[in-house]
Amino acid sequence: MSNIIDVHISLDQQYQIAIGEQLAQSFKAYCEARYNRNKIFVLIDENVNRLHNNKVAKLVSDFKDVHLIEIPEGESSKSAREWNNITNKILEIGIERSTPLLAIGGGVTGDLAGFVAATVLRGVPLIHMPTTLLAMVDSSIGGKTGINHTTGKNLIGSFYQPDAVFSDITFLETLEQKEWITGMAEILKYAAIRNSELFEVMEELIHQPLTPKQRWVEVVEESARIKVDIVQEDALEAGNRAYLNFGHTFGHALEKVSGYGEITHGEAVFVGMIAACHFSQELGHPVSDARFAPFLSLYKKQMSPLTTDTEELLEAMKSDKKVKDNTIRLVLLNEWGSPYLYSCEDHSMLQKSWSYTLDKFNT
Ligand SMILES: NC(=O)c1ccc[n+]([C@@H]2O[C@H](COP(=O)([O-])OP(=O)(O)OC[C@H]3O[C@@H](n4cnc5c(N)ncnc54)[C@H](O)[C@@H]3O)[C@@H](O)[C@H]2O)c1
C-alpha cells in the first residue's frame, strides 16, 4: 500500500510520488507497465548498497540486464569528475533513450544521478528512490539536478523531472541520527511556511524516529505535498519557490563561517529558522520562535558550540552571490504559514537576530 501524490509541472511533465512501506511490488508493477525491462542502470549510494543490497536486488529482479553503479558517499561525489566517471561507464556499457536510470540514495545521489539522466543522450527516463528523510521530503521533489563546482555548490545542473518517485520509508530504518535531524529541519520549515499543525505532529514524533511507521508516512507525505504545491506554482524558481529558502539565508552564512562539514545543512537551517523568526518578530509579526523550543535540545545535543562572531556571519551573508547593492533578501513570516520576501538594508537588525539566536545555542 502506498500513498500517491500527483505532480503536474506542465502538460507533458506529470508524474506520481508513491510514499509508503515496502514499495517493491508497486515499483515492479510500475516498471512492468512503463518499460520493456531489457536493461536498467541503478545508481546507488555506497552505504545504501551495503545496508540494503538484498532489497535492491529484489526490486530490479524483473529486468534482464541490471547495471549497478555505486556512488561514493558524501557531497564530494556531486562533482564533474564523478559525473564523468558514471557517464563513461554507462556509455561504454550501452544505453538507449528508453533505458531507465534508477537513483537510490540521499540528495547527493539524487542530484548527481538526476544530472546524469538529464545529460546522457540528452535525457533518459529517471526514477528517484530517495533513502534519506531529506531526500524524501525535499531533494527528490522539484526536478533540480546538478553538481558542485570549485567556486560554489550546485552551480552546474538542470531542471529535469523524473518519471516517478518511490519513497519507501523502510530505507530510513538504517539512517543515522544526524541525518534524521537534517531531514526534520526541512519538515519544520514546511510547518513554518505552510502548515503549522506539523509542529505538533513533529513534537510527538521527534524522539522516536519511524515509530509508528504509518505516522511517519503521513508526515513525509504532507511535507512532500507542500513542496509539490510550491514547485507546481513555480517550477523554474522565478518567484514563490524562494519561500522554500526560509531559514536558509541565515543557515548558509552559518555553514560558511563554521566550515562545511562542521555543521550539517539541516542544523544550520534549524538555527537559521530561529533567526528568521526573531527577525520577523522584530518587524512586529506574531511568530514567536517558542514554536521551535521543543526541538532545541535535540539539535543542541548534536551540535558543537556555535560561533559568536556576528560580524563574520553578517559578512558571510553579504558575500552571497544573490546579494545586490548590499541588500540581503530574506524569507520572513507575516504569520505562521504566510511567508514573504523582505529586502534587508538595515544590517544591524541582522546582527541583533544573530546574537539572540546564538545565545540560545551557546547557553
Ligand atoms: N535537488 C534539490 O532540490 C535539493 C534540495 C535539498 C538538498 N539537495 C542536496 O541534497 C544533498 C544532501 O542530501 P542528503 O542530506 O540526503 O545527503 P546524502 O545524500 O549525502 O546522504 C547523507 C548520508 O546518509 C547516508 N545514507 C543515505 N541513505 C541512507 C540510509 N537509508 N541508511 C543509512 N545511511 C544512508 C549516505 O551514505 C550519506 O552518508 C546536498 O547535496 C544538497 O545540495 C538538493
Question: Would you mind describing this structure in some detail?
Answer:
This protein folds into 2 domains: 2-175, Rossmann fold; 242-362, Dehydroquinate synthase-like - alpha domain (Dehydroquinate synthase-like, alpha domain, Up-down Bundle), CATH 1.20.1090.10. The model has no long low-confidence stretch (mean pLDDT 94). The chain has 363 residues and is α/β, with parallel strands linked by helices. Helix content is 47%, strand content 21%. The strands form 3 sheets. It has a 7-stranded mixed beta sheet with strand order 1-2-9-6-5-3-4, with helices on both faces. It has 13 helices and 11 strands. Nicotinamide-adenine-dinucleotide (NAD) binds at residues 45, 47-48, 51, 73-75, 78, 105-109, 111, 131-132, 134-135, 138-139, 142, 144, 154, 171-172, 174-175, 179, 182.
Tell me the radius of gyration.
Answer: 20 Å
Give average pLDDT, whole number.
Answer: 94
Q: What fraction of residues sit in β-strands? A: 15-25%
The unreliable regions are: none
CATH architectural group of the largest domain? 3-Layer(aba) Sandwich
Helix and strand composition category:
alpha/beta
Class of the largest domain in CATH? Answer: Alpha Beta
Q: Provide the domain count.
A: 2
Shape: globular
How do the helices and strands line up, and which of them pair or pack?
Elements: E1 2-10, E2 13-20, H1 24-34, E3 39-45, H2 46-59, E4 65-71, H3 80-93, E5 101-105, H4 107-119, E6 126-130, H5 133-139, E7 144-149, E8 152-159, E9 164-168, H6 177-193, H7 197-205, H8 213-233, H9 248-258, H10 265-282, H11 293-302, H12 310-318, E10 328-335, E11 338-344, H13 347-362
Parallel strand pairs: 2-9, 3-4, 3-5, 5-6, 6-9
Antiparallel strand pairs: 1-2, 7-8, 10-11
Helix pairs in contact: 3-4, 5-6, 5-8, 6-7, 6-8, 6-10, 9-10, 9-12, 10-13, 12-13
Bound molecules: nicotinamide-adenine-dinucleotide.
